[in-house]
Amino acid sequence: MLTELLSFRGRYKILHMTWFAFFLSFFVWFNLAPLATQVKADFGLEVSQIRTLAICNVALTVPARIIIGMLLDRFGPRITYSLLLIYAAIPCITFASAQNFTQLVISRLALSIVGAGFVIGIRMVAEWFPPKEIGLAEGIYGGWGNFGSAGAALTLPTIGAWLAFGALNPQTGEALLNWRVCIAGSGILAALYGVLYFFNVQDHPPGKVYQKPKNARGLEVTSIRDFWFLMLMNLPLSGILGVLAWRLKKVGLYGDNILYLVWTGLAALYLFQAYNCWVVNKDLLLGKKQYPAKDRYNFSQVAILELTYIVNFGSELAVVSMLPAFYEGTFSLNKALAGMIAASYAFMNLMSRPGGGLISDRLGSRKNTMAVLTAGMGIGYMIMGSVNGSWWLPLAILLTMACSFFVQAGEGSTFAIVPLVKRRVTGQIAGNVGAYGNVGAVAYLTIFSLLPEWLSGGGEQTAAVIAQSNTVFFQMMGIAALIVAFVCWFFLKEPKGSFAEHHEGEEDDSVNQGSEIPVGMNPNDII
Fold first, then answer.
1. Opening angle at CA 428, ends 423 and 434, nearest 5
2. Residue 193 and residue 145: Cα distance in Å, rounded?
3. Rounded CA gap, 64 and 454, in Å?
4. Which of 35, 247, 406, 431 has the fewest Cβ atoms within 10 Å of its own Cβ atom?
5. What is the pTM assigned to this prediction?
């Protein structure tokens, strides 16, 4: 596979076009982080307000990934990804046109939906690559696409300075950044690529069947116990949005009455989701249907993967959102340099996530790979909690890159397992696991936004207090990762067919792959 990777034909064309679609969605999704201090200055925002925008940036990705997973299993990745990229232009232009904090919040919430794009490519890549290569293929897709956040950090401050034509802040003497054009332009670029993507990819190879559930309204499970486990694991998906609603109220966006109304709506959303899951699984629950042993899967494995994605991808989203400001404040750097150095964390995606997938392919145990990488991540975060201004800057950068290797390799190993759980509901499983990454991000960022206030007792948030909050933040993520590593080691099971030549059920489909396709029928329409 490595020797064929440089080609742009067949499945490798699909892989390259899809990882770049993900790259652009991440570029758009994190176009605020490297420009955040300029936005804060232009609007006169408090630290709590700019951190609230970072939370909004990942908030609606939680329900969006669930919904996208359903649409993906129903309509296929080509249409779903193309429309999502085209949609990205709308909230980007709206954010770039904002005149107050409320408009910034609303447009950022709308933009957070773009983060659901990751789920789409997981299914697309899984359709084109066999299980024995799925780790590396998904790792390349996720890792090279994830580099979009680093791409934004590396390029947007410089482009913003160019577009400001050398203008300086009269009070500080720092270069001003034309952040509005940068953010609007990134959305327009994504929309143009969405059109290109639609006309240049196919959902699956010719002659192969695109498996999908009979009903995509909710996740199909194969035992009554798993149904109630699913209901339990769906609670945090609505609950974390309730936390976000409380945080927005706390920064003065609305009052108690609106907060209670939002909470009521989220409770109704959970009940609606539960009802849809009941509709899909009612025959099982009423005893009218039983799954043969070969068609069952264990939902507890999905739940463990959801926990792994909280601590790896959830922490990455949180760290990417705060790392430029962390370097800027800890080492007294300018915005452009801090953004470029912070990009070293996401830069590792180019190698780390494919590396995690490759290790998972070659080690012979996807479970052990997951446990070891998660433990390494926890140790890395614990050490990052000790970084302060007295550190040698290159050493801090090396530590950041080392920690990010374990984080992103862990993500790669998570999604080396996801497509192997149950093929016909891969989109929804990927959506659920991916949504938990955003649950983690919102939880981490909410705690991070409150730490200075807690540590100062509600008083002045000095540089020392902010530095202490950074230490607590990294150590908290490290402890969480070590706990999940323990769960993986003792409770995660090796997926069936982890290193097979074909996906589940594909051997039966292969008898049709040599047959002729009826005249006039597009292979892409065989679903």
1. 115
2. 14
3. 32
4. 247
5. 0.78
Interacting residues of 82 by C-beta distance below 8 A, sequence separation 6+: 194, 195, 197, 198
State the distance between the two ends of the chain, measured CA to CA, in whole angstroms: 27
Rg (CA), the chain: 23
Place of tokens 């994830």: 146
- 420-432 exposure pattern, b = at least 16 Cβ within 10 A, e = fewer: bbbbbbbbbbbbb
CB 179 within 8 A of CB 336: no
Contact of 128 with 205, CB cutoff 8 Å: yes
DSSP codes, 220-233 = --SSHHHHHHHHHH
Mean pLDDT by 10 residues, the chain (527 residues): 72 93 92 85 83 80 84 89 96 93 91 90 88 85 83 84 66 65 94 96 82 78 95 93 86 85 93 92 93 90 96 88 84 80 75 83 85 95 91 92 91 87 84 87 86 71 80 94 96 78 57 35 36
Question: What is the rounded distance in angstroms from the CA atom of residue 133 to the CA atom of residue 155?
Answer: 33
Q: What angle do CA 222, 228, 229 make, to 5 degrees?
A: 85
